[in-house]
Design a protein that fits this description.
The protein is mainly alpha-helical and 55 residues long. The chain is built from two helices and no strands.
Length: 55
C-alpha cells in the first residue's frame, strides 16, 4: 500500500507542476465539459457552413 501512495503523490506533484507551468506561461488550465465541447463543434460547423454558402 505504501508504494501506491508514493506513486499517487508523485503523480499529483507532476500534475501540480504542469498546472503551475501553464499558469506561468499565461495559459490557464481549462477543462471543457462534453456539452461545452459539443456546442463549440456545432458553432464551428455552422461558421464553416455559413462561409461556404456565402462564397
Amino acid at each position: 500500500m505504501g508504494q501506491k501512495i508514493f506513486i499517487d503523490s508523485i503523480y499529483k506533484s507532476m500534475q501540480d507542476s504542469a498546472r503551475q507551468v501553464r499558469l506561468s506561461l499565461g495559459r490557464p488550465s481549462s477543462h471543457a465539459t462534453r456539452q461545452q465541447a459539443l456546442q463549440q463543434v456545432a458553432m464551428l460547423k455552422a461558421a464553416k457552413d455559413a462561409q461556404l454558402t456565402g462564397k
